Every structure is written in C-alpha cells, then in structure tokens.
Amino acid sequence: MASALALVALPVAAQTSQWRDLGASPAPAVPTTAVNTTQINFGGYEWVVIGNTSKDIYKGEHDGGTYGHANAVANSVTLLSRNNDFDDSAFRAYGSGCGIYAGTCVGGRPNEYQGSALQGAMDAIAGGLGKELGVINERDLESIGDTGISDYSALDSADGINGENAGGQMLWALSYPEWRAIAYGVGAGEATAVRSFPSPSMWWLRSPGLTGGSLVLAGQSDGGNIVGVNVGSSALIVRPAFNLDLTFVLFASDASTSSSGKSAATTTSGYQSAAQPTAARKFTFLTSSIATPTLTLNATPLTFTLAAAPLLDTTPNTPAGAKQYVSGFLTKDATTDLYARYLETTSSVPVTPFDAADSDGSGSPLDDGAYVLHIFSEEANPYLYSDFASHSIDFTFDVTDGAGTVENLTLTSDSAFGLDNSSIALLSGGTFNKAWSLANGSTLTTTSATFKPSSLSVHGKDNTITGDLNASGSTLNFFLPSTIAGTNTLLNVTGDANITGSTINIMKDGGVIGFSSLSTAAEINLITAGSLTVSSPFSYNPVTLYAGVALYSTAYDFALSDGSSGSLVATTTVTPYEPPPPPVVTPPVTPPPVTPPVTPPVTPPVTPPVTPPVTPPPVVPPVVPPPVTPPVVPPPSGIQLNAQTKALSEAFLSGTAYLNQAQDFAATQGIDAALHASGTAEGTGPRL
What we know:
This protein has about 700 residues and is mainly β. The protein has 4 helices and 37 strands. Helix content is about 10%, strand content about 30%. Strands 13, 14, 15, 18, 19, 20, 21, 22, 23, 25, 27, 30, 32 and 34 form a 14-stranded mixed sheet that branches.
C-alpha cells in the first residue's frame, strides 16, 4: 500500500516562490545574494560572495570609490574561499625554466602569474570539482605587459598580472585591485572580515610587487594591508576565487549544517519548507546528464510508480554519499514552497506525492489553494556540494473545500509518463482531464484507458502517445519549430486518435521567426495514428504565419486534409515576400519658361521747365539828340557848299543810327531771357 507523504505546516508569512521556471520568458531573476555576507557551499567548501551583478570586484577603475562597474557578469556571483582549505604553496618554486625558478616566464620575471606554481594550484583545485566545474564561468586574465611596475596604479590597466595573458582560468587568485575593491562601498570592518586570516597567515595575490621581478603581493592576516613577498619564500595560503553561473539554478536550499535544509529530507519525512534561505545555502542546478523519471500515474489517491529507474550519474569526483531520488517541489499560491524526496531510484514502491484528503496522515485535508507540482530526478549530495536535477514533469491543480482537480501536465523531451486511469482524481469527483502539453520528443503512455484532454498542446517534432487519444471536441494546438520540414511528424499516436469535432490550431513555437526548410507543397504530419477517427468534421481556421512582420515577409499557409487517409496532414504554401517595385515616378511636366513681355522702359515725359514770360522792360524810345547844328563855318573864302550834297549825308546817317538802336535792343532782350532761364537774376548781367 502506498503511503502518503506528510505536509509540514505551511509558513504564515507569504513569500514569492523561488522555483525558477527556466523555460519562462522573460527569464526569472537569479537568487538574491549579499556581497561580503552570503555564504554559498560549493564543491565541498564554503565560499563568501564578493561580487554579484550589481557590485563586483572584476577589473575596473575602482580608485574613484565606485564598487560596481559594467564588467560584472550577468546572472552570476563571484566567490572567494572563506577558509584555509587548500595546501599552501610558494608562488614559484626554485628550479629551472624561469631563471633559478621553476615553470615558464616569457619575460624572465619569476613574478609572472601564467606558468607559476600558484596558477597551477588553481588548476588542480578546479580539476577536483567534478560536474560542478560545468557551472563556473571561465575567465581570461589580461597581462599589463612584460614589464616591471613602479606604481600600483599600473595594475588597474588590465587584470593585474605580469608576463603572458592567462586564458581559460576557472579558478584564480585575486589581483591587488580586486583585493582593494572588496572594501569599496562597504564599511572597513566588513572588508577586513572578508580579507583577514588568523595571524600570522598571509595569502597570495596574483599581482607583481613594485621592484624587480621577484616580488609578488600578498594579503596580510589583518585584512587591511598588503606586502611584497619573494616568489620563492615560504609557502603562503592559496585562496581561490571564481565566478559562478546562476543561469541554471532551479532553487536554493538551506545548507547551514549537515542536517539542515534538503540534507534533512528523507523518503519518509514528507514535505518540508523550501523557503529562500537567509543563511548559508546550496543550489540545485538543472542538468541534461540526468534523465527525467519515467512514471506510471495511478488513480485515487494520486500515486505514481517509478517505471524505469535512471542510473546515478557517475561523473568523476561525484561526492561520497551522493544518492539519486525522485523528488518533488510543491508551490502553493505561488508563495509557499515545499520540498520532498519521494523515493530512491533503487525502489519501485508506489508513492503518493500528496493526498488531498489526508495530507499528513491525521485526516486533515490539503489546504485550499492553487498548487504547482514539479517532479524530477535528483542527484542529492552532502550539504557542502551542489545538487543536480533533471527536467521536471510539471502539473497544476486546485483544491477547493477539500476536493482537488488536476489542470495541466507538461512533458519535456526527456520525460515519459504513464496513465493507469483516464480519470485521475485527487479526491472523489476530481478528474485529470484538463490541459496537457507535450514538447520536443516527449512520450506519454496511456496503458489501460483512453486519454481525453480538454486541450492538448504539441510543441516540436516526434512526440508520442503510446495508446489512444480521445480528443473529440477538444482543442489541439500544434506549435511548429523553426526546423520543421515536409514529412516531419509532430504527434504519433500508436492507438486510435479520435479528433471528431475538434478545433485545430497551427502556430509558431516560441521564439520561431521563420521556417527555413519549408517549401510549397511540403506535407507536415500533424497527427499519425494507428487509426484516425473523424465522425464529424473538425474545425480549422486557416492561418497565415509570417517569417517576420506580417505583409512584409515570407508567408506560410496551411491546408488540412480531412483525415480520411488515416493522418492529419497540413500541406504548405510558401509565398516569398517580394517587395513591390519602386513606384514609377513621372517627373512633372515643366512648361517652357515664360518669357515675360518686354515692357519698354517708360520714359517719363520731359516737362520742359516753365519759363515765366519775360516782360520786356518798357521801351524807352531812344533819346535822339537834337540835331547838331554844325557850327556854321564860313566857308573859306572862295569855297561854296552844294545844298544837295547836304541832303544825301543826313539821310544816310539817320538810317544807320536807327539800325544800331534796333540791334542794341534785340541783344539786350536775348541776354535777359537766357539769364532768367539759368536762374540768374534778370538784368544782373552786363548789358550791351
């Protein structure tokens, strides 16, 4: 008889579930940590967080007092060993290869980090981490050059090492700038606590000293000072650091002691709190090296039996005491997290992951609420090591007034699930006939009954239902991957597939842009079956999928067969996007230039100056002198005047006098007129 797993009392204080759905978009936030405070157990050792995505000690200009910088690695934390867990070492032993010292040094300076005994010790520690090495971000250390330094500021320009670059480092000693950066943004006491070691211990940094080529810096035991030490001097502490990738963390667990958190869980202890830890912690990482469990799901109360036990992953350096379980992570109302180990994979006893009617064996029903259950295979290691889990089988259910109904089940590519009953009930009246999802090659086995989901979403290719599928009246959603091609099959049903009256939808899978392998007339098998039942037509709304922005990219149309051939086939029509030809631009007709009429220049009429009429001066009749009576000269004696001769002379002279007077008058009048026209006062000029 299957025994129920007890549920612990649910915490009163609500929290946000820390389970990280790694398939969600956008990706969930990484676990929170506090710099210089949070302890993480990893690889069998205790480490302290000295950097995260907001504050890190990676290279950068720290002298200004800014602790964080743009070089921090996303979704990660930087860790420094907390304790003296590793063998002491000289920086470089005496020998040959680098002058009187062992190893290599291209510049002839024994304080070069690459090729040193300290760098070799870091590689040796990394080699013992087993599969945990796979979640470390390697780092390339850049050299400041083959030169001695006279000022410590020279170490800020690169990664604080001399000689060659050191590429692909998994673990590394701190540089002087990184040692110094631990103190930025925090109190002096906090930095001292992180950097100190019990006196008189000192620990190696990777940076050269100021003079010559044989000094290397070391942190002193007080945590507040550094000192230059000869490379071949007495062995000092080896204190590695590394950057841990948190991308594939599923959840964190309390790891304060060997009997806390997950380490305290057994297959008989039931559920226990899996709240986000506040003290020392360990992480459970998703890995593809462990197979999702193959389970058979049974009827009321909900139980499952392990159908095929996955083998324990025997990666080299698997910790002693490692075991493999089928485990569960249960979340209530997205706020309360519970964890349980159902059974070891060496067992095949039926397991009840929960019993809604009797959650703890005392007759108390499961609390009302919305639940999500993740079932996965897990490599559980001692508390100082990380744990690893397979992809999970996830489904949701609601409990109302003690009655529960399962709503959704999602199978991934490496999971398989068996059903022993078509009506899976948590309690009487609850049924397992809601929404289901299969993805990328997953297998669902319906061993003794017809499988009838209310909706079925099929993602990717080569999914299988072993048994029958009763999708009569159901909604079937087919999500095409980018690699889909003609003759590919999305779902194969080995028995009968009944799609009578179903609603069929074809969509692009998440993140798909286009379908590079599809061509016109390609036939995609949405469903192949031992037999296909279509008693009445199904419903299909033809859809056009685009490789980009609708109307501006290649279009894919799908016509469905009627199912009479025994398969449901979608035939593709591909319409490549052809940009419209550029519009023919008819240049506007430019009329001939209009020559404006020549308008002759308008010469304003010349208005002659108005010369006021000249009023001639009054005519003064010439003064005719009285006739001169010549004196009567008595003729000489003997001479007599002829009277006719006298008359001729007078007449002639009187005419001449008259003519002279007329000319004088005319000249005077003309001169006066000219002077008046020129603006000269009349009569001012000389007169003739």
